[in-house]
Amino acid sequence: MAETLRRAPLSRDRILRAAVALADGAGIESLSMRNLAHDLGVVPMALYKHVANKDELLDGMIDVVVGEIDPPVPDAGWKHAVRSRILSARQALRRHPWAPLAIESRNMATPAVLAYLDSMVGTLRAGGFSADLAHHVMHAMGSRILGFSQELFDASRRAGRSGTADPDPPTALPPEVAARFPHLAEISGAASHDDASVVGQGCDDQFEFEFALDLLLDGIERLQQQDWTSSRRPR
Amino acid sequence: MAETLRRAPLSRDRILRAAVALADGAGIESLSMRNLAHDLGVVPMALYKHVANKDELLDGMIDVVVGEIDPPVPDAGWKHAVRSRILSARQALRRHPWAPLAIESRNMATPAVLAYLDSMVGTLRAGGFSADLAHHVMHAMGSRILGFSQELFDASRRAGRSGTADPDPPTALPPEVAARFPHLAEISGAASHDDASVVGQGCDDQFEFEFALDLLLDGIERLQQQDWTSSRRPR
DNA sequence: AATGTAGGTGTACGCCGTACACCCGTCAAG
DNA sequence: CTTGACGGGTGTACGGCGTACACCTACATT
Questions:
Q1: Taking the complete model, does pTM exceed 0.90, yes or no?
Q2: How many interface pairs between A and B have CB atoms less than 8 angstroms apart?
């Protein structure tokens, strides 16, 4: 009875926060209903009184992350508003390295994600974009809108436990690999800002993200200024 | 004994092709060692004499897909060479809808993928790109280089069995959703080429892909022509 | 005091990946 | 011709997973 009082009663919210903490700390592959229940001091089936199944749990976790994205900055041009909101989304995602893969593997958007996208479209429309161009822009941005670039192989996705004692040295390329892929070897040391590798080992991820983001935003700005429509494409 | 002769002996290659066929036909979530062994008329553990484990099986499957990408077109400008190779990669990926998720969920590149990336960098370098710029360009392109745009929610990823009797009508947006997300509702019907939706239901995916690809390529071309380096960024 | 109900429990089922011991056909060496 | 090694298919078994289903219990309502 003292026990019952000691631990707070289960609730959907408490479950979601525990799940996010578990995934943050031990990697998404350690997130099982059994592990999660254990962390909450409860039997696995107890969770099902609050979430329908594991997929719905994942959806809820995604909504927690999306909820951490800052609201849009008011009274700014569309370009600055979009840029800063996306960078805020990126920061949220970086606190939860499991989130990109979780989002990509779900096959329907949650209401919170839809609300975020809706507000992003709203910013574009308010900035003078035609619905047509806004549509294509949303597609072109893809999941970068949510703050993650789709690197082919993302070091940060390696699940490993966070925090202490995981230096994971840059490693560069092992010599025999460098020999087989000379162009990769060449550019792996090329980035002027840092010792880096295209497979994502030592790069300044933030720089690369902003590089790509600005490349897109500048191109989009140019299209918008020339009243682009899909019927007459450039080139 | 007649049986033993009838069915070809197992081999890594035969396993990989059966695995690809199974994932193509029944979805990646149906690809278990047990199902795969069943399709091959063999006991599950037999597979382990040819592949180390399921992860290595997935790597092999990815290599099969990458092997379907056309070689680079010779004697073309970098822009055309890159563009057409990426579109070829896209066609290969579209034959295997499970591949994008499989690629994203692996955390190290296979040699075949590295070879593909290496050759792509080679094309850029031959086109006059500095190693520095080539590096950033590879990052900016991200997995689009392999032919898939990272849509937030990709209808084609819905696993379902291919081929017959799966019309999956566009559905537009359900009215109550449209009411809550007015901007999404607006742009969902906006694309002039087709009745479409930002959640990927009725869009012309090919158009959207090329839109984003050309947006990037045009921006990249502009950077290259002005001898961009990371030390002096535009804007 | 009776009763409905929300929420935690225990057991069980069918999947999964795969470790490990086994066994059998082929083929080279004696 | 025997023998022994070995490549490759088999059978059993283990621990983990998601979750269906019956249960039990404490509390709120009447």
A1: no
A2: 211
